[in-house]
Design goal:
Elements lengths: L12 E13 L3 E13 L2 E6 L2 E6 L2 E5 L3 E9 L5 E11 L3 H4 L11 E12 L2 E11 L3 E3 L2 E3 L2 E11 L4 E11 L10 E11 L2 E5 L1
């Protein structure tokens, strides 16, 4: 018989914001950079890993995540109304764990991936579907294994005004496993404010 102890929360609080910048080349190629900034807090957990006693988590810090550099090419369409097709490839750099180990803000190695993007827009109404995947070295945390995944996303949006857009997203991934934790699915509602060359998003 075991006596239950106090429950530990490896990640009790996490807030993440992204700084994004991009520029276009010849109206067909877009170079983008995403820099995540986040705050993470949680309890430390002492575990035996490979015969060594280690503490996982136990951080309370504001830190930089893993920057992502991407290249996106438009394959079909004019980028305005109608049907559009694009492809995007990206790579992230393992900065977050090197700055704040145990913050769960990023991977311990480089990750890279890509996706095919389809979009339809008419009179301020937008529908988009993305299918792709990413590669990373396998990482183990207790009984959870992080590995490469298939990714997919669907979004519907509407331009309420030329300055204000609202959209909803379904964002999922799969490792082709029957375990629920290996097939995450998230729903998000986001508002976007456009001001000249700048866009501000909250969601």
């Amino acid at each position: 018989r075991t006596t239950p102890g106090p429950r530990s929360h490896l990640v009790e609080l996490m807030f993440v914001g992204n700084l994004m910048a991009s520029f276009s080349i010849a109206d067909r190629i877009q170079i983008g950079l995403v820099v995540p900034l986040g705050y993470a807090a949680g309890d430390g957990l002492d575990v035996d890993i490979g015969g060594e006693r280690r503490t996982i988590g136990g951080v309370d810090s504001f830190t930089l995540g893993d920057p992502q550099l991407s290249v996106k090419g438009r394959l079909y369409g004019d980028g305005r109304d109608g049907i559009g097709l694009a492809a995007r490839g990206w790579i992230t750099f393992p900065v977050g764990q090197n700055i704040s180990s145990g913050s769960f803000m990023g991977d311990s190695t480089i990750t890279t991936g890509g996706e095919l993007i389809g979009e339809f827009s008419v009179d301020g109404f937008h529908i988009a579907v993305n299918v792709g995947g990413f590669w990373r070295e396998s990482q183990v945390l207790l009984s959870t294994v992080g590995t490469s995944q298939l990714t997919y996303r669907a979004a519907v949006g509407y331009d309420i005004t030329p300055l204000f857009t609202i959209f909803g997203e379904l964002d999922g991934a799969s490792t082709f496993s029957t375990q629920v934790t290996e097939n995450p699915l998230e729903a998000r509602l986001t508002a976007q404010l456009n001001q000249g060359d700048f866009a501000f998003m909250l969601g």
